[in-house]
């Protein structure tokens, strides 16, 4: 199963720890993820929760990037995309050094998935692996009917991620544009924030469209180009 996942699930290039923008009172999150990947004592597991657009997927993929940079094996498991494969998707992963399991709350209402997650957490711990878990709700959510699973979700540090404020959204757009090879000035950033959907996922997809439009038209990204792309169906 690991080989299949490695072939089919690609990490986004921009989802690095350097590009993650924590809230001012959560500046320790990137260093905690690094400590998890490095296998530092006391950080065997990390649970991230928050609403859409709070950075859960970014951090899950960033942990895998960090593991790869250290020469360690890693697997990113977005359960929202893998649910059709059933709980068997969690089998045979105990040899992977870092597992990043996203969208936990998409599957954990079902007893068979709860049993599989319970077994996975135990296997990772037994093999001295590292586990990053991400979900839209807190780890002691009552919808997890299996008490032993709820207790294991709380084995490590827990962070409640919050939505990006205006300043961090601006910084995210400018970093995202730079990673794609084009600058984004203040007028263009302001226009995007006023006229585009403000959730991070939509904004990153819009930057991809702007990059493609800029290359095709051989024009730099300006407000008129942004307006034209936004007007497209």
Automatic annotation (TrEMBL):
Coiled coil: none annotated. Residues 46-141 form the ATPase AAA-type core domain. One of its GO terms (biological process) is negative regulation of DNA-templated DNA replication initiation. It holds the Pfam family AAA. Residues 170-230 form the Hda lid domain. CDD domains: AAA. GO terms for molecular function: ATP binding; ATP hydrolysis activity. InterPro entries: ATPase_AAA_core, Hda, Hda_lid, P-loop_NTPase. This is DnaA regulatory inactivator Hda. It comes from Acidihalobacter prosperus.
